[in-house]
Amino acid sequence: MIPRLWHIMTTLMLMLKLRLSKSEASKQKVEKALAEKLAKGRGLPMKVGQIMAGMDDNHALQQLTQSVEPLPLDQVKKVLSQAWGKSLSEVLQGIDESHAAASLGQVHRAVLCSGETVAIKMQYPDIEKAIQAELSLAGMMPRGGPVKRWDFNLDAYKSSLKINMQQELNYLHEMKAQQRFGQQLDVQGLSVPKVFPQWCRSNVLVQAWVEGERLAQVATSWSQLERLSIGKTLMQIMFQSLFQHGLVHGDPHPGNYLYQKAKQGALVHLLDYGCMVEVSKKQRMALLQLILTSRGEMNIDPLEGFVAVGFDALKLQGIEKKLPALMQIIFRPFILQHALKLQDWHPAEEVDSLLGQQKWLFRAAGPADLFLLMRVFQGLVLQLKTLQTVLPWWPILEQSLHHDFLQEVKNTQIVKSVIIPQFQGSASKLHVCIEQPNKADVHFELPAGSALDLASLIPSSAYGVITQQNIDIQAITEQLHQKGLHSSTLLDIYDGDKRYHIYLR
Amino acid sequence: MFYTTACYLYSPSPEKTRDFLLEVLGFELVEENSVPLLSNGSLCLRLARGDMPAVLELQCSNLEQDAGQLLQHPNIEKRTEIVHMHDYLEQHLYCSDIGMTLILNQPLSEDDRDELVALPTTLPWQEGLIEKAQYILRATPLAFREKARENMVQQAEYKAVEEGGLEVLEPHVMQAFVQVTPPFQHQTLYEAMKAQGIDADQYLDEKVWSETP
Fold this sequence. Notes:
Chain A is built from 23 helices and 13 strands. By secondary structure, chain A is α+β, with helices and mostly antiparallel strands. In chain A, the strands form four sheets. In chain A, strands 1-2-3-5 form a four-stranded antiparallel sheet. A four-stranded antiparallel sheet of chain A has the order 11-10-13-12. In chain A, strands 4-8-7 form a three-stranded mixed sheet, with helices on one face.
């Protein structure tokens, strides 16, 4: 176990280095080293690599989505026989060497005694224990920087990661999700491989064998109409699964998609249902209402809409006035009455320009599982960009939903008046300023209520001087609770030439 | 950051050049000194004495007519005939008393070039439809044509997808034309559609403008 822990620690160091890389050359160097390191470790490290590849068009990391060194066939046969409680010859006519090895298991092409050609996904022995140990490392996630300053609910993120990994480790859960997804979705061009429940176990998944080409091949050698057809199918899968059914395929890395030419357009074989994102009816209806409001077809209060999606009202309050502009940025492909060239859409930069440092407030306000949904959206955008397809989103969204459902969304009052906790006092904003010679001043504003958790807002660089000067942060907070949030200075200290000034106005 | 404010124009007789620029080419005197500064709003020239051949490039909207006017000046003569380049016309004149060459050019519009400009499509279009649309677009005044082209293509492709397809068909394009064309131009649009063999009555009602006084 110690080598695995060491492997994870060094991987985390490389990820930090990647984040801090300033030049393109050093970034590429670190990416290559990181890809090699992630590929060596099955389980969580490789999963992290696949997540990164799914979110970014990154060649070094995308190698991870293809393969790692598989386990020998003899070992695989033993595991299968044990799982089925039968000799292999009672179930299979034959089985090939591994076709692909991934983060949690590897895939073999086989023929059942009944004659069907199947793909058998077998979980690596002991991977569950390794993952559990690795998940405990999540407790070592850094709490500094924006995570602390903007009060991210790290426990919710950890819990979301844990639940997700546990579900991915149970292939029976995956089998049910695959069946449910296939039964629910009605999208032309979507193929969900049939599963064989009688041969599925918690560590073995048996499904129909499918073949097809990868996205890179499709993008370079398929006709415009075929690429468009693929693009439309991918959009419909996303929109219908998210808005209509609330069960989204949460692992958009390229290895999970195979494309096949068909008489009518093209087929998308969607694989790997281990990581699914569930979205409640209230959340998806609220999300649709926010989009309809951005389009001018409804008129709900943006703050109330986001709160119904699961955002924290208190944190959002600090950027309430900017929410309509923010919606115009993040929902733009749904708003425009024409197709948006995704190459020209840079939501991250625009949000940065609109909110500045307050972007962290928006992110911290969001529910933890929103991260997974964002990743799915980013995956879709990346796929559409790679396919070079330019399609209008709104009509495809409308076609993906049952007409009745869209009407229900338009006619239902989902959002409720949000009661934001009020505290006695007149201050509306908490100001945090750091002034230092020869450097730009840091100044950000938060809702006044944030002062009640002052300890989490203190920059770590100020700890030393606070201790030296015997300042009791807890006492300041208690006083605020007792006397209310009035305009006042909470902290005004110097560390040499550096000034930390925190005040309410 | 620097801003270029003026360039020097050398002439063996700066006084005569000054008069020519003021009286014939519509320049104004900005600063009177030993090196006078003249401007026509877009170009600033300082006039200095020198033997280097002076060359001025002038843009005009009707080369034949504008060159004709200049040639009436007693000291101006033709150096070349009008030459047809890919996207502009050019003629060289010479002003003998001040030793200055005038290069006149006239940019050519897509109509002058008799060119059908490519449509910014992102979906496949029914065979022959792009060319028809390009001809119909010619009915739009040049000043608005580029925007009309972009809007029409976006609307037509949106309609195609809205109807569940991925190929743009004639009705999508014609409806898009009607949508992006102001009503007072509908008669022109109707005629342009007819000229392309399209049953324009499907998309526009002739009665609307024929009954309008």
